[in-house]
Every structure is written in C-alpha cells, then in structure tokens.
C-alpha cells in the first residue's frame, strides 16, 4: 500500500542506457531525454573532477578537448566501462527528467544488454540507486526492442527481433512473455564506425575520427550495391605527409568497410535461427524478422539479411526509439513489467 502511495507522488522513469545514446521516458509523459551517452569531465590543478557537460554538449567536445578536459563515453560495447562516470551520467539524466517535482525518488526501469554478467547487472543497479532511484528494475534489450516494435510478446507465437545498437547487436526469439533464445555480440554501430576509420586509413592514408566515420555511415553507407553510387568529400589528416587533406569517398567504399561487421551480424542471426525450436521457427517463417536500433537504418540492411537467411526482414517503425518505447511500455503496464523483468 505504501509503495502504491509513493507511486502517486513520484515520476517513475524508464531508461534506455545505450552505448551511443541514452533515452529517458517519464511514466505517462513519454520521452523526456534523448542525448548521447557522453560526459565531459574538467580537472582542476589539484586533480579534482567536475562535470562540465553531459549529452549532446559533451559529444560535441569529443576529439576537441584541451588537456584538462576529457570527453568520456562511460558505456562501451553495451557494458559499463567507467562505473563512476556512468553513475554521474545516470544521476544527471534522472535529475534532469525528474526535476525534483515529487516527494519521493523515482522507481526506475533500465534496459540492459542480454548476457550481462551478475557483476555487470549489479553495477547498473547500484549506479541507478546511488543516482537517486528508489527501486530499480532491469529488462533485457531484445525483449524491450520487441515490445517497442509492437510485437505481441505475451502470445504463444515465436517472433524474432534484431536490435543493432551502438555497442551490441541483440538478437532474441520471444514467446509467452519470455526470451526463448537470445544472443548478444559486441559488433554494432561503434564497431562499424571503427571499421570505417581503419578502411579510410588503410586505403587512403587519411586519418579520420569516429565521429566523421559515423557521419559517413549515415550519409552514404549501404549494405547492398546501389543503382547509383553515393559520393561525399571527407576531410582528415594525411598520415604520410601529416598535412590536412580531403578525398572523395563513395558508398561502395563504405560498403567494403562495413562488410566484415555485417557478416558477423548475419552469422549471429543464422546461429539463433539454427537453435530455434521447430514450432517457433515455423512462426518466424510466417512473421518474418524485425530490425530495430540505429543499425536498422543502414541502407539495404533488411534486404541484405533477407537474402542471407531467406526470410522476410522488416524495419520497425521508429527503429531508433524501439528499445526506449518498449522499456516505457513495461513501466506503464505493471503486469507486463512483472512478467518480463528479472531480479538479481
């Protein structure tokens, strides 16, 4: 009864704690925050640290900071790489979303990658609790993605979702409110960006940063050959001469750069399909595969995967928001929340 009363006076939150972006939803209000998972830390002469910026403002500083300022991405490959900075970031987002309007600290549901260890799960929970959460629920990313994509996860039918985020690609088969089979690989947006950096360096002797690589991926990246190649100019530093230079790069170059990463994602999908029980496999043949996450926006990725697994592949509506929307829906529906979340 007391918990129910507290719920009336607090703004419960759903957090999609992503490697690339963090989204925060307020119960009954929708998405309140959608910002990069980056924190800029300023160090004084005594070595003490203060938060200079969080989110988009901090991301704009990446690769451009002087020695006493560091722009840090505390989430790497879907897990917490820097616990202290992650706690700072979560606290900042909770306080920004909560705005101290209510009498009680919020209950928080956080989406985490499938396959996180008990230690990593506890780290996420502890970070949120230290940041001011009253109680913390955890939901696995493939389930959140499926819910956000509109898949009826509580039905006795098999559905397969592939969520390609910043740090991990999460693949899950859902049925009866649970994950029958799941697989998580640390090949996703960040891995693809680094592959583009390496490709440009190897083939053009040009040094570019991850931010430029991400822009190339979005602007001209493609998983399949296009009828008409896309082109753009990229600027960087010539690693031989050390001078600034610019080159023209095409969509075929970016496709070649992404080739190995996309093949690893396709192989992981094939592994999950091979492990799927026959009855659920029949459902997937009928229902197809749903793509979510930022990676779903790579041109032609749905056709690329469909050609490999010989099944229909669909891109979810608003794929970037699917995980966050699914996490928020679980927060809104208490019976669904109890069925799909887990405790340590």
Task: Tell me about this structure.
It is a single chain. It is flat, with a radius of gyration of 21 Å. The chain has helices at 2-9, 56-59, 83-98, 118-130, 141-148, 189-204, 210-220, 251-275, 278-287, 301-309, 322-332, 334-340; strands spanning 13-17, 21-26, 30-36, 39-43, 49-54, 69-72, 75-76, 79-80, 107-112, 135-140, 159-164, 169-175, 178-185, 206-207, 231-238, 244-250, 289-292, 313-315. The two termini are 24 Å apart. It folds into four domains: 2-36 and 77-143 and 323-340, ATPase, nucleotide binding domain (Nucleotidyltransferase, domain 5); 38-72, no CATH class; 156-187 and 260-320, Nucleotidyltransferase, domain 5 (2-Layer Sandwich); 189-257, Actin, Chain A, domain 4 (Alpha-Beta Complex), CATH 3.90.640. The protein has twelve helices and 18 strands. It has 344 residues and is α+β, with helices and mostly antiparallel strands. The strands form five sheets. A five-stranded mixed beta sheet has the order 3-2-1-9-10, sandwiched between helices. Strands 13-12-11-17-18 form a five-stranded mixed beta sheet, sandwiched between helices. Strands 5-4-6 form a three-stranded antiparallel beta sheet. Residues 1-9 have low confidence and may be disordered.
């Amino acid at each position: 009864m007391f918990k129910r009363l507290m719920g009336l006076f607090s703004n419960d939150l759903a957090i999609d704690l992503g490697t690339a972006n963090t989204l925060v939803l307020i119960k009954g209000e929708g998405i309140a925050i959608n910002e990069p998972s980056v924190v800029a830390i300023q160090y004084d002469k005594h070595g003490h640290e203060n938060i200079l910026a969080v989110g988009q403002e901090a991301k704009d500083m990446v690769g451009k900071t002087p020695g006493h300022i560091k722009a840090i991405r505390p989430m790497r490959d879907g897990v917490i790489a820097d616990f202290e900075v992650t706690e700072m970031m979560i606290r900042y987002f909770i306080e920004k979303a909560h705005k101290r309007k209510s009498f009680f600290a919020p209950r928080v549901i956080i989406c985490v990658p499938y396959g996180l260890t008990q230690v990593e799960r506890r780290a996420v929970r502890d970070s949120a609790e230290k940041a001011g959460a009253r109680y913390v629920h955890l939901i696995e990313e493939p389930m959140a993605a499926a819910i956000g994509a509109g898949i009826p996860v509580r039905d006795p039918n098999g559905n397969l979702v592939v969520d390609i985020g910043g740090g991990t690609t999460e693949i899950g088969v859902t049925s009866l409110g649970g994950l029958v089979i799941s697989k998580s690989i640390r090949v996703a947006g960040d891995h693809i960006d680094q592959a583009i950096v390496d490709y440009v360096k190897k083939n053009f002797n040009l040094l570019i940063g991850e931010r430029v690589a991400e822009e190339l991926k979005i602007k001209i990246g493609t998983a399949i050959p296009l009828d008409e190649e896309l082109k753009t100019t990229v600027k960087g530093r010539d690693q031989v001469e050390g001078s600034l230079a610019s080159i023209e790069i095409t969509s075929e170059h970016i496709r070649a750069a992404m080739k190995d990463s996309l093949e690893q994602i396709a192989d992981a999908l094939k592994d999950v399909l091979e492990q799927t029980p026959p009855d659920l496999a029949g459902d997937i043949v009928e229902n197809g595969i749903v793509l979510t996450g930022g990676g779903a926006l790579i041109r032609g990725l749905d056709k690329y995967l469909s050609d490999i697994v010989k099944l229909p592949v669909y891109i979810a509506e608003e794929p970037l928001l699917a995980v966050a929307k699914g996490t928020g829906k679980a927060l809104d529906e208490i019976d669904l929340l109890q069925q799909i979340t887990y405790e340590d």
